[in-house]
Amino acid sequence: MSDEKPPQLVDYFVVAGLAEASRALEEEQQPRPARPGEPITDVAVIIRSQGEEVPQGFTCIETSTSGHPVDLNAGLLNNPQMFLCYKRGRDKPPLIELGVHYEGKDRPKPGYQILDTTPYSRSANLASGSPGHQRTFLTFRRAAEPPGHHTLGVTDICLVMPSKGESTPHTFCRVDKNLNTSMWGPALYLCYKIAVAKDNTLVYEAGLLSRYPEQDSESFPLPESVPVFCLPMGATIESWPLGTKYPLPVFSTFVLTGASGDKVYGAAIQFHEAFPRERLSEAQALRLGLLSVVDRRPVPGRSLHTRKSICVLSHWPFFDVFRKFLMFIYRYSISGPHVLPLETHISHFMHNVPFPSPQRPRILVQMSPYDSLLLCRPVSSPLPLSGASFLTLLQNLGPDNAVALLVAVLTEQKLLIHSLRPDVLTSVGEALVAMIFPLRWQCPYIPLCPLALADVLCAPVPFIVGIHSSYFDLYEPPRDVIFVDLDTNTIFQSEERKLLSPRALPRRPCKVLLASLHNLSQQLDELLSAPGEEEPPELVLSDAEAAGARRAQLELEARAAFLRFMACALRGYRSFLRPIAPAPAPAGRDAGSLFALQGFLRSRERAYQRFYGQLLRTQLFTQFIEDCSFASDREPCLEFFDTCVDKVQVDLEKPEDTPLMELDDPRGGEHTVFITPPEQPAGPDGTEPPARYRYDGFPTLRPELLEPPRDPLVAQLCQARSSAPSSPAPRRTKQEMKVAQRVAQKSSAVPELWARCLLGHCYGLWFLYLPTHVRAAPAKLRALQLAYDVLRKMEQHKVVLPDEVCYRILMQLCGQYGEPVLSVRVLLEMKRAGIVPNTVTYGYYNKAVLESKWPAGTQGGRLRWAKLRNVVLGAAQFRQPLRQRERRSAAGDPPGARVPPAPRPVLQRQTTWAGRSLREPVPAPRLVKSGSLSFPGSARSEGGLRAGTPVLPVTPSPAPGRPRAAPASADGSLSDVGTDESGGDEGPPGGPGGPGAVTPRRGLAAKLQQLLSPGKRPSPRPAEPPREPGTRRGSEQRDGDSSSRRSPAESLLRPRERPESTASESSVSLGSELDLSDASGGSTGAPKSTEPSVDGTAGTEPPALEVLLSSCSRCPGCAGLVFDEELMAGWTSDDSNLNTSCPFCSRSFVPFLSIEIRDFRRPPSPPGAGPVPPSPQGPVLSDRRRCLELDETPELCNGCADSPPPGRWERVAFAYLSPLVLRKELESLVENEGGELLARPELVDSHPIIYWNLVWYFQRLALPSNLPLLLLGSQHAPRDPQPPEPSRVRVRLLWDVLSPDPESCPPLYVLWRLHSNIPPRLHPWGPAPAPFSLTFLEALLSHVGLNEVHKAIGLFLETLAAPGAPRTLHRSIYRELLFLTLAALGREHTDIAAFDRRYRSALGKLGGALGRDELRRRRAQPPSAKASDCRRTFGAPPEC
Known about the structure:
Layout lengths: L11 E6 L22 E8 L10 E4 L20 E7 L6 E8 L9 E4 L20 E7 L9 E9 L12 E2 L14 E8 L4 E4 L2 E6 L13 H5 L4 E7 L8 E8 L5 E12 L7 H6 L14 E13 L4 H16 L7 H11 L9 E7 L2 E6 L13 H21 L3 E6 L2 H13 L10 E2 L16 E6 L13 E4 L4 E3 L14 H23 L11 H29 L21 H4 L2 H6 L6 H8 L2 H11 L5 H13 L24 E4 L58 H14 L3 H26 L3 H17 L8 H12 L3 H13 L6 H13 L8 H31 L113 H9 L21 H8 L8 H4 L51 E6 L2 E2 L6 E2 L1 H7 L9 E2 L6 E2 L2 E8 L24 H6 L18 E8 L3 H15 L8 H5 L1 H13 L28 E6 L13 H8 L18 H12 L3 H13 L11 H13 L6 H19 L1 H6 L7 H10 L6
Parallel strand pairs: 17-24, 19-21, 19-22, 20-21, 25-32
Antiparallel strand pairs: 1-12, 1-16, 2-4, 3-4, 5-7, 6-7, 8-10, 9-10, 11-13, 13-16, 14-15, 15-16, 17-18, 22-23, 25-30, 26-27, 28-29, 30-31
């Protein structure tokens, strides 16, 4: 587990202002045009034709901006000449807005004054020439009193005539009402400019006054440019008239972008404080107007002030929280005195306020008895974290200008955003770079540019820069820049650089975008115009959340509107990505080699070729293609965008019903952490200490007053956990989790889909474990090829995966271990499966292919070895018949005699390279297959998990005097049992069985055997010719020979040969067939009883540990036993729900996984002790007792005749988890504690639920793992001073209960064993009821064998009603009959699917007589369709 620090809320606290080394900014600049020093305080209209003159102090506007004469009444004949005049000054509050009022048509606006008369008391009607025209007057609005030195006001007024080619000047607001309302004359519009009119000001570059902490952090040192961003217009020294009101602090935000693209957010407030006159030089005093120019005498009535700023830096855009904190600190500094110093509150906020976490989503910080703030966890979103505000963008620019700026950003234009409100600049700038998601702005980006860095505007590259509007009062802006005025809602374009029209965008997506933005803009206006109440001093949590809920929803909808447009504009881009299949060239990262640019361009409509042509040439798109092609930190975002592309429908003219983004706001949690204010120190006698901290201005921080963290545990409240670096990327993205959850919800309603959904998550569990398995494997390549074979098997069995994690992990492991060729094969396997890799998987694939070392171009050596291997294998196959002929000749048989087949030719199902039989000793040196070739198809080899282990070791001969056991087939079934005995006719004494053959007993098994053979045909079957290895044998071949002579019972007792889609679950199951290697070594699936052991002990020695697992659970409501497939069917799609539902009483309960651990380790045997002979085995249907002796094998469902464990044993039980729940827990475990934990024995003790569930599922699906071996180092297996070599762990899966209730009635299959005097596997069974006699059991089996299942059910129900029968059964009647049939006839001779069909048909016959409710009450119903599909998909456990 990595030791990363928890996220820190605030990194630095900075105080900026006028430092000793600050340089003057204005002295080094070029001469600027004179700016107005005073705002406009009055306007007037004069009528010169009636002799009115310009009033004293007023200025008359006689021409337009281009020099044309203007007359406010020029459109009328014989009109009076009217002109507009204005006056500057500071004797009254300035004007802040102008307007035009149409009398009778417009309602007077509140706060506006109508200019209805001239200074000479005449009417100021601008249309006074004719009484029939609309009466028109000028209006104005004045600032509130008293005026401040920095009050915004109208600083300039002009008139424009559009018919003369004039346009609104830059930074001017135009009143969109024509002053000329007549039908004659040109249109005339009034324009005005709002700015801060001030004089007597010196501007200097801001410097650092103090900071905390004083030492730089290793991960994030304090940038040197922070002070100039805190005061973007410089640190000023200003001369004010006495009595001037202090302006309110101005809040501003800025963004710093590092070299790696990481963003750091800054929040600052600017304020003024007094400045000592003694620090000024004479030149400075002259410029500030403090000295007279002639005699250098002090000018009275002036005060001196400077501008400072306090700022916090953070990696999180909590702008509202930071604004409240900084305002509290500022108010604290100007009030007082205080008991605690200012430094205490700063250090308390930085150290003791934790970052909100999912467990504690809300942090309420009480800074003082009257000041508090609420810190909420950021909204969980797949989009990048940003300080954007799309509502601010719409509020200041409107929908049409927002779309125009979208075109400008997509085509990489030079954008200069300016406003008089610095806090708006950052919000709009962040919105501009966020609206083009998934593209990323690659050029200079400074949302709030300081005056000292204004040279970036002359850069010859595209940029997005925000600047204060007063910049234009100081400097001339560049001509090739597009200006965006947020105060006037206008975009100014130069002649040198024209924007593309929004009509160049795709029509329908653009139309939907505009409609959505207009709707949101209307809702925003209604929200802002609603009357609101002032926020109380004490913040109420519910009110704060309710106030921001509506705004957050509108913000989400605005962002979703732009996201939909980008998804429509880039639709289908993934089909034009070019994967790197061969060895990459040096220019492999070029966009042209990674993306088919011309193909993508040709796929778009011709009308939009110009827009797409410019887009493809931008750095935006080039970086986007690289991000999609290679692994990066943006993979979750890009994967989310791919899902959005799949959701949108381009042809629609309205948004889709399914939202692209969902508001996952974690602030709705109930848990809130309360942070108290800093504690005040106590006085000497316990009284409150005196208040002795008072500040004349904001002080320089004193290090001795900055306190350390008050509680070191507070920082651990919200500690962030990150993935361990050793884990390759097991985590699913949030979008993949949501998609998997939706798929699971849909699949839970369809039985077939639900079973396959669970199976897909099981394979996902194994691939999460795969990095640990490969790390522990001695042969990495073979382990990777084994995983690739698992993928191919999954594709053959049509396993539906919920996501691409399986392919992704294998691709990354290929890159980690230098196997690019295998990575290409995995990609081809994905395409063969019809899966289009998403951005995350595609990035890992290209990374593996690009960064791995490719093999040499010539494959001659490997190809020759492969050809030699094929020749040797072919020669070995041809030599096999010759060796059999030589054996017959050595036995003395005449050349032409027909010899019966050898007793055990079926064991020669696989040969070594030298052509030897598997019964012959394997030579020490053996050939190893080349690592680049595919894995052999052997289902028993370890496949690279154990280097140097033989494919199948030597098996010792059986004990003399006993018959050789019937071998298992390749899939572990018993279809290869003896030939003549199972056919129904006994062979002669000298037949294939030899003199030692056992004569079968004419019991129930023999009677059922006759049902399988055609009656009245006692002729012996001719001897079979010798078969080649690999051919079908035993009952499978007999099925093919006697397909035309099947009895009715044969359809139930033997599976037919069906197509793959309808194969019986006893012969084909998605889980049971995928057996890649032996499990006895603790590394693979369920062991096969008739196979030799892998560790070389040849079955003569027990394993060190044996583990029995059972998932059968008892319902706490009805005490019924619920079996594995029924538990799976009762699970839900919720990955946090541990409950399943009982099929009998529908009660929810948590199932348990029962585990029995047997420790066979004991002191070595005394000298001379021989090996224990293996248990005898024989045919199933020819003799009942020998059939029951086969119970020792785990392939039959009638238990084992095991003796009590000789060593130590213990039983434990843990919750049985759904694969969906287990996967979520395993991902969390790997993320928090690292993948290395899966390879350490601590996993067994610290996380037993996860461990045992993984063992169960891996063993169930026969997937290789080393998890069982971890038991040897856990507390369940005490260390042995002399452990046997090699130490092995054998895992067996049971279908039935592991520990029965001693008072319960034994099941029928156990009674079958008891009546045969064979000890059961479980001993504490109660006494057998009298009605359940051997005759009763044989009668049940006879009915089942004759396909009269309804009679068997009826007989069972009648027997249960007889005296002496048990009152209640823990197993259903279906389960009793099924287990009895499997125990008596063998699993491979019973088609469970056919049994289910016959049982359901029989239940239908009985339903009319007894009633379905009565049958259900007596637990006679079969498993549900979902349970049957789960069993068919996973396969039944091998043992009862």
